[in-house]
Amino acid sequence: MGVAKVVSTVVVGAMLACGGGKPAGSAEGKAAALPEALTCDGALPPGDLLTADAPVEPARHASQALSDAGVEGTRLYKSRKWEAAVPLLRNAASGRAGDDRANRDLCQFRLGVALLFLGQDGEAKALLGVIARDPAHAARGEMLLWLGDATAAHPGLAHYFGAFDDADVAAAKANEALTSKLNYLIGRQRFERRTYADAMFFFSRVKPRSGYSAYARRCVAKIDANTNAARGQPQAAR
């Protein structure tokens, strides 16, 4: 995690329950629809424990334009024409089209997503795992934003959040609503792994007016109950 922080369940619960913002009936304040697996009452689908490697080089950034293969592959990718996009993105990601390292990174990520939607899970997960573990990867921010959008429909993707932390969320520069969603989903992954201190930190960063604050409050209550049970203390009435 970028900055080590310890936050109590009492403090986080108060932060989520109070605070300013839009009324509960507003579009932003309405409860977001999540599958049970992404709530703290459910269980994530089985998946590998992913963590980021220690940084060994600065984050990579593109220094030139995408190759023709990269441009066309990305256009097809954005149009969700996965099958047509794959050979072009594979060519660009491999370096055969002449792309620099950062642009190869971007095409590697888009190739991984296209393969995932084509049902080629083995290669797709291998590519996405490489990106998640590499803190210098140029597509890291793009992958985090994509996970924020895609995980509700594909809960198994939540395990990739294990390789992202608060510094990644800050670097993504998402809007407030998506930032709260990312903090919730990263916290949800930490909750699944029972790293409760980290989970509490991320839940504390979900804005009270966010549609994810109710889910975060429920997770905080579960952490409180689990912690008390481990200590042999009676659960507080809620």
Count of helical segments? 10
The first-to-last residue Cα distance is 31 Å
Global shape: elongated
Counting DSSP E segments of at least 2 residues, the number of strands comes to 0
Number of domains: 2
Largest sheet: none
In round numbers, the mean pLDDT is: 86
Question: What can be said about this structure in brief?
Answer:
By secondary structure, the protein is an all-alpha fold. It folds into two domains: about 1-55 and about 155-210 and about 220-238, no CATH class; about 65-135, no CATH class. The protein has helices at about 10-15, 70-80, 80-95, 100-115, 120-135, 140-150, 165-170, 175-190, 195-205, 215-230.
Secondary structure layout:
Blueprint: H1 9-17, H2 68-78, H3 82-94, H4 101-117, H5 121-133, H6 140-150, H7 166-172, H8 176-192, H9 196-203, H10 213-231
Helix pairs in contact: 1-10, 2-3, 2-4, 3-4, 4-5, 6-7, 6-8, 8-9, 8-10
